[in-house]
Amino acid sequence: MRLRSTAVVIALLAVAACGSTPSTSSTTKAVTTSPSVPAASLAPPTAVAPAAVTTQPTSPPQTTTTPSPTTPLTTTPPPPASAAPTTIAAPVTLPPTTEAPTTTTPALTGTWQSTDVGADLFLTVSCAASNFCVAINQRDDAYIYDGSGWGAASPADAPYNVNTVSCPSVTMCVVTDIQGGYSLFDGSAWSARRNVATNRRSDGLDGVTCPTTTFCLAITDSGAAFTFDGRTWTGPTMMDPPAAAAVDAINAGGDQELPKLYISCSSEQFCMVVDNLGSAFAYVNGAWGASVQLDAGVVPNQLTALSCSADMFCVATESGSTYFTFDGSAWSPAQTAAQTMFGPVACSSKSFCMTTGNYWSVFDGTMWTSSYSNDSNSQGPSQSFALACTPDKYCVSAGAYASVSTYTP
């Protein structure tokens, strides 16, 4: 029996050294199922030094003590649980997924360069490319950026106040004003002002967006929408009943505030509108969808900004730290951006949006990273009233102190 015990130890050490389960041959089975093997001999491999086995020359294993492979031991009872061979391979390496996830905030990249342009605060800005942007101040003076600097002022819509400019190309920009008028830029000069809603209800336009040179969408503060094909305006179509009801109440002598609407189009087939009553309306293939109340509650969300990118991704924000995202089919619940105070918003794609509120922040599709928590690159634009970003993440911020800032990724 001493020789048989020694053979068992040798077999077990061979199994441990190979890092695999015991052999399934009948010879090995006959040995490992023997009840004469004490449980103590199955200690983990690290408990027995290999040298202790190799220094036993006087007790070589003898073939006469090993049962014939053709004669299985059917009378041997099963071993106790503590002697199960599987206990040898029990220690395992933990998989990488058990490691704690990183919580490091991504570093902000890109640089800002600010320039004083003119002498008045800016209200709106649009960029057709990184070498062509138009910014307009409260005096309706338009300044054009050519990639290296800002040119001289030219009147865009005097004498009415421009509220939005949209430039789908270097040879076309459209501005709208608070009296329902518009003016066009053809690459060299601005046209005379005309009314969008001639012989129709001519409320103030809250904004215009032109994803192409043959399609623009303009909206009024009464919930009406007009489309522009580059030559002619068509409409209106009523797309925002809550805003229309608020305007009617004001016209009847009510003391409500005039509703504010925000618009963004990523193509001729897709646009989104939100209002400061918390409603959202999608324009898909020429038709308006039903109103969607974002995060409906007792108090509606006071939405203050909207931007949609070409992949039908949208971000709508409040003036604090609350934001909503649209994934092409539905709006998310309200979310909070840590250390981010929203101002104007511009999205180049679902993985890059920027806001320039009290601090400039960038959204990567998952979280907002604020310059407030990133001292290595906290220098950004001055107080911003308008923001535009191109698909290649080049951005321009325009606002107070006659300052215009350009962002290079």
Q: Keywords, please?
A:
29 strands, mainly beta, 4 helices, Methylamine Dehydrogenase, Chain H, 4-stranded antiparallel β-sheet, single chain, 409 residues, disordered N terminus, 2 domains, 5-stranded antiparallel β-sheet
Characterize the structure shown.
By secondary structure, the protein is mostly beta strands. The protein folds into two domains: 2-97, no CATH class; 111-408, YVTN repeat-like/Quinoprotein amine dehydrogenase (Methylamine Dehydrogenase, Chain H, 7 Propeller), CATH 2.130.10.10. 10% of the residues lie in helices and 36% in strands. It contains four helices and 29 strands. It has helices spanning 2-18, 26-32, 51-54, 241-251; strands spanning 111-116, 122-129, 132-137, 141-145, 154-155, 162-169, 172-177, 181-185, 194-195, 205-212, 215-220, 224-228, 233-238, 261-265, 270-275, 279-284, 287-288, 292-293, 303-308, 314-318, 322-326, 335-336, 345-349, 352-356, 360-363, 368-370, 384-389, 395-399, 403-408. The strands form seven sheets. Strands 14, 15, 16, 17 and 18 form a five-stranded antiparallel β-sheet that branches. A four-stranded antiparallel β-sheet has the order 1-29-28-27, with no helix packed on it.
CATH class of the largest domain: Mainly Beta
The termini sit apart by 79 Å
What is the count of structural domains? 2
What is the CATH architecture descriptor of the largest domain? 7 Propeller
Low-confidence stretches: 1-102
Instruction: Tell how many strands the DSSP assignment holds.
Output: 29
Rg for CA atoms:
37 Å
CATH superfamily of the largest domain: YVTN repeat-like/Quinoprotein amine dehydrogenase
How would you sum up the major sheet? 5 strands, antiparallel
Query: What is the CATH fold-level name of the largest domain?
Result: Methylamine Dehydrogenase, Chain H
Provide the helix percentage.
under 10%
Categorize the overall geometry.
globular
Main structural class: mainly beta
Q: Which range does the strand content fall in?
A: 35-45%
User: Mean pLDDT, rounded to whole units?
Assistant: 77
Note the total helix count.
4
